[in-house]
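If you are new to this repository, start here. Below is one unmodified record pulled from the training split, so you can see the exact layout before writing a loader.
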Amino acid sequence: MTIPQGSSFCIDLHCHSTASDGTLSPRELVQRAGEMGVSHLALTDHDTIDGLAEARQYAQMEGLTLINGVELSCVWNRQTIHVVGLDFDHRSSRFLEVLAEQHENRWRRARKIAERLARKDPEPLLSLATAKAGGDVPGRPHFARALIDQGVVSDMNQAFNRHLGAGKPGDVKAFWPELATVVRWIVEAGGVAVLAHPRKYKMTATKLRGLVGDFKQAGGRAIEVSTSGQQSGDLGFLAELCRREGMWASQGSDFHFPGASWCELGRMDKLPEGLDPVWQHFRQRLLTEQSAPA
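And here is the target side for that same chain:
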């Protein structure tokens, strides 16, 4: 694991707070990012930007540059896909409207998770998970912590292995908009659409190339080449896909909670040479040691 752009720059463009399914408040997240040496951070909570104002306030105190971010859920070929939006206008009225719709979709999903996990009386579990989320929409990590408090499981791994992981009762799919719709929302708000963690979708190489092709046609501009939890060979494969499709390259830890050695703020493999970093195309270009004029 390396700091990406040199000793003075560490750019993390994917992480989560209690505004969605992270376990740190925006303030705590920014403070931890500062402790980890992050210089530029995008808070990309799921389908909401409610944490941005608090994060921006404390980023200034920490001396971090905060980039507007969000991670939107959508559907492509009946599969849930995540698209990160970066550097958009957070005051766009239309964008705020669609985010409110997405937020309500997440509440519907949270209620369904609670119903599946506690069929007789879901309200106590939902209330406890909501408290874990700081009063906002709980995600699966918050339900996991609620199950721990209720004595149903002993730790996070057990919660996901038995109740919340893929194929388990708490793995509830939501009714999300189509990929092209979500990409359009981001672009119309002046932002850059990034295909998040492509290898986590467990697609064949051929299917993934098809996804990237449709994403690009819809207006998507970047691929998350470096992120946490990648397997050996993923970095090179995604870098080559990025070059072949003429896409910009992004990176982010996808941090959700402390204590996971494989997923820490600012800790990603360095982007391979020859890629065009997405941050060099923001409205206010980020100058790193590699891009600063001589």
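Two things worth knowing about this chain: The chain has two domains: 11-91+177-281, 101-164. Residues 93-117 form the longest helix (25 residues).
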